[in-house]
Amino acid sequence: MSGVAALLPRALRYSLLIRSYRTCTTNTTRLAPFTSPLLAVESSWSRELSRRKLIVRGEGRKGTVGVCSSAGLRVVGSESYSTMAPITTQGLTPLQVVENSIKENKVMVFSKSYCPFCHKVKDLLNQLNVEYTTLELDQIENGSEVQHALTEISGQRTVPNVYINGEHLGGADKTFDTHAKGELLPLINKSDHTYDYDLDSREYGWVTPETVTHDWNKMVEGIQSHIGSLNWGYRVALRDKKVTYLNAYATFTDEHTLKTVDRRGKEKVITSDKFLLAMGGRPRYPDIPGAKEHCITSDDIFSLPHPPGKTLLVGASYIALECAGFLAGLGYDTTVMVRSILLRGFDQQIAENIGAFMEKNGVKFIRGAVPTSVEEVEEGTPGKLKVTAKTTDGEEITDEYNTVVVAIGRDPCTADISLHDINVEMAKSGKVVVNKEEQTSVPHIYAVGDIIEGGLELTPVAIQAGRLLAKRLYGNGKLLTDYVNVPTTVFTPLEYGCCGLSEETAIEKYGEDDIEVYHSNYQPLEYTIAHRPENDCYAKLICVKSENERVVGFHVLGPNAGEITQGFGLGLKLKATKADFDNLIGIHPTTAEIFTTLNITKRSGKAVDAQGC
């Protein structure tokens, strides 16, 4: 479970708006219904253009030219077109021309054919493969009247004048500034669909604004306030328990002595009969030029004093995917650079499902690549960073981003406290080697949390290990920490909860013939009225056949997966079997009840599409 993602309420943690990125391939904007066959012959082009006024140039990867006749506007000189609404001036007032153009076109550019700034905006949209429509005001008879009406509506006298999804963006400067912040494509690709079902309220009858905006600084202020209150609460709790708190760096001078140095340089020597090491870890930076100078980590993202803009996440850990999910949901152009596989150590079928869902909903992935350098090319808030990367095929790729977040793992904070000098055994990873009682090679020194070799980097695990250790040392406790059946959740846009073994690990441990996997897609009730996909959510139980189908792996992909997994995790600790799940009466209508009705095995090869009640 990531504290980064869990800090956010669901509507922010997952997403505000699904992105539906459309690229221009062979199709281009349809500017008007055809009134005659396409004029593809050059001589026909010339005759047609000589008789009519040029009104629209719809440009994408393949351009089109529109001409106006008594029948309205139609396309000439293009081999293909798509389905953007037509523009016609026949029988319309200048105000109606403007209003219709804005209403019926996703991206509308009011332009003049000779204007260099207009050409720059259109060139940018072409580079982004964005479908758009332009109205060339200098090429229509009542162009000045149309421009006057446009000024009245927008308050902007000049061209280009850009509208996106019916909302006024501005001119060239505003368009390029929005793109520099990584906000242009998310703005263009807004959809009425949502990642988070809390925002499906329109389908349930609520009247909400068409455009949902987000205040980054307000969110950061709230999160920092919450973190501050947590820290203060811990300080108060320590004081109430008469625990002395020292905010200082420490190093061992011998097996029973520590020297501490605070930020003022004041030294203090502490001796103790026993020590508990629980320093945790810190995000790792890649060893490449510019990484530490220009990149940030998940520890920093909620301290940014400005929106992140176009963002690259480096890594495929749960932290990388969680951050990518909520940034895309907040409307930022988001890309994840993945060296090999997603969510190493987790069930790979689920991991790929998560990646496919995120990609379908606007998060871009660069697979099989690692960054080789990060260079600042423009200062600002945010600035602009040039990232160079190399693929597994040896190809060099570059792109520019406003923010680069590295999430390639965490290193234990064990390097500078002289553990080697007192003969504490260390792994190559820098983590501390402990036995099943969290005891190091020095009998009176113990370790818990992220710094122990073979442990789980999860806050609740460290808390549990610390509690049980304290009871064993100073009470009558005998319980040891169970590092196997630990329920956890990855807070990606579609939550993933799991407990026990992945399918790969179960097969490796018990053999494929002794494993039975029960699984099914399912559709939460709240998805139905909101018209969400039926088969995005997935449930899986992994059972050992020779042990009366004992459940050794629990996996669920869907909303509230963490809440579901927390309860079922107890069943795995108590060695529940598939029959126990079958005999459990489900609560209807909940998503968790899918685990009481699983009856299709992977071995059978039967379809697992979601079924109704």
From TrEMBL:
Cofactors (names): FAD
Chain ranges of the Glutaredoxin domain: 107-168
Gene for this chain: TXNRD1-L
Domain Pyridine nucleotide-disulphide oxidoreductase dimerisation: 486-597
Enzyme Commission no: 1.8.1.9
Keywords: Disulfide bond, Electron transport, FAD, Flavoprotein, NADP, Oxidoreductase, Redox-active center, Selenocysteine, Transport
Coiled-coil ranges from the UniProt annotation: none
Family: Belongs to the class-I pyridine nucleotide-disulfide oxidoreductase family.
Species whose genome carries this gene: Homarus americanus
Entry keyword Calcium: no
Residue ranges occupied by any FAD/NAD(P)-binding domain in the UniProt entry: 213-466
Enzyme superclass (EC): oxidoreductase
Protein name as annotated: thioredoxin-disulfide reductase (NADPH)
NCBIfam families: GRX_euk, TGR
Cellular-component GO terms for this entry: cytosol; mitochondrion
GO biological process: cell redox homeostasis; cellular response to oxidative stress; glutathione metabolic process
Protein task: Has a glutathione-disulfide oxidoreductase activity in the presence of NADPH and glutathione reductase. Reduces low molecular weight disulfides and proteins.
